[in-house]
Design a protein that fits this description.
By secondary structure, this protein is of the alpha/beta class. 39% of the residues lie in helices and 16% in strands.
């Protein structure tokens, strides 16, 4: 479906939902209510169709042959890179590196930049809101280098304490790794302000954009971050594809993450000369089909309009928050003033896994657990939470079903 850009009032939710075949699924005889979008979004038919077309009429390895299929696949793969460039408003397509996902993108920066430019006694700043993927790689680096990890604290609403963030900076600060949006709480961090402050101290910044890229318009020139990472499977694309944006002058200074074919200009037993960016960071056969499908997903999201998506999902979050906040015995965890469409909650006296199991009986899919953010759980003194996360194809009627399901859980455990 091609959707013209529209005001939020003109979005035809029934038309949009019809683009997603899986939303017609029945679970235990009940219509699927899919509220686990922060973990993985669903794919519209146009993306599924693009995968089928590639596999049936375009599949070949790229950059390595002059025959028809190879040239066609190469053209479509590089066209997808340009789509990502425009989506991020990056200066050049060579600043777009295809990876397997956000996690690999962050590890690429840790190995390629961190191991080269961070040493003993240096300090890396992360936040208390981070996903494990933006904690563990930096812990590995500080252990290897004898560096130090500093943590930005947060308040009871799940908002970072900016004064304390600024106080962490000193002459030893060498890197800031920060989530754009918290996957566990939905908090939208004031990243533009934080990036600008870091740059005043000469500190480069990586933003984990896994939870931001699907839900709001992005502009790397405006944000001015040095690296930005996100995953395709959270934005209506397939798994196994991710993106690392990096400023060209930094990527050129970095060492390759992996060695192999396509990332070289020449190889002898005495010396290897690495390829130019982005090829330097894309060793071996890349995820060709997944990259092309991601490009199709970006076209689909652009057709609806990221501003429209953000506004509509904001309405869903406001409605869900109002309904759940009025329920006795239910506590929303993460009440930041600025949030994406993520609502984590706990039901008094009920373990989140029991909540998820009972809701599943009625076809309602939420996420339960620590959401790969155990420090967040420790901060709020809970072992886990139940998390409902919304996308532009969800409805208020589905939220009503969630509310009924929560009441059912409470009745079963009363």
């Amino acid at each position: 479906m091609k959707v013209e850009r529209m005001n939020i009032e003109r979005i035809n939710i029934d038309q949009i939902r019809s683009d997603f075949p899986i939303l017609g699924l029945q679970v235990s005889g009940k219509p699927l209510v899919y509220l686990d979008n922060a973990a993985s979004s669903q794919m519209p038919q146009v993306v599924i169709g693009r995968i089928v077309r590639y596999q049936t009429a375009e599949h070949s390895n790229i950059h390595r042959a002059v025959h028809y299929l190879s040239e066609l696949a190469t053209k479509e793969f590089e066209a997808a890179r340009v789509k990502v460039q425009h989506f991020l408003k990056a200066k050049e397509s060579r600043e777009i590196i295809f990876t397997r996902g956000t996690t690999e993108s962050i590890n690429l920066v840790m190995h390629g930049y961190g191991r080269a430019f961070i040493g003993k006694g240096d300090e890396i700043i992360v936040s208390a809101l981070e996903h494990h993927a933006n904690i563990v790689p930096w812990q590995m680096l500080v252990e290897e280098k004898g560096a130090l990890l500093r943590v930005i604290p947060m308040n009871d609403a799940g908002e970072l304490l900016i004064d304390e963030f600024e106080a962490l900076f000193n002459a030893k600060t060498k890197f800031l790794a920060l989530s754009h949006v918290s996957n566990a709480l939905g908090t939208i961090n004031p990243v533009k302000k934080m990036v600008a402050f870091a740059h005043k101290h000469g500190v480069p910044v990586l933003l984990d954009g896994a939870q931001a890229a699907p839900h709001q318009a992005l502009d790397m020139q405006d944000l001015d971050c040095d690296f930005y990472a996100f995953s395709g499977h959270k934005m209506c694309g397939p798994t196994g594809i991710g993106v690392l944006y990096g400023k060209a002058h930094l990527l050129e200074k970095m060492q390759p993450f992996m060695g192999g074919g396509d990332m070289i200009l020449s190889v002898t037993f005495e010396k290897t000369k690495y390829n130019v960016i982005p090829s330097k960071f894309e060793a071996g056969t890349p995820p060709i089909m997944a990259a092309i499908a991601l490009g199709e997903a970006i076209d689909y999201l652009n057709g609806i309009g990221l501003a429209n998506i953000e506004a509509y999902e904001g309405e869903l979050l406001a409605y869900a928050t109002e309904q759940v906040s009025a329920m006795p015995g239910v506590r929303i965890i993460g009440t930041a003033n600025k949030k994406a469409a993520v609502m984590s909650f706990e039901i008094k006296g009920v373990h989140p896994h029991d909540v998820g199991t009972i809701l599943n009986i009625d076809g309602i899919a939420i996420r339960t657990g620590h959401h790969c953010a155990q420090p967040v759980m420790q901060r709020f003194h809970v072992p886990a939470t139940a998390r409902a996360s919304f996308a532009f194809y969800n409805t208020k009627q589905e939220i009503d079903k969630l509310i009924v399901g929560i009441r059912k859980v409470q009745e079963m455990f009363s």
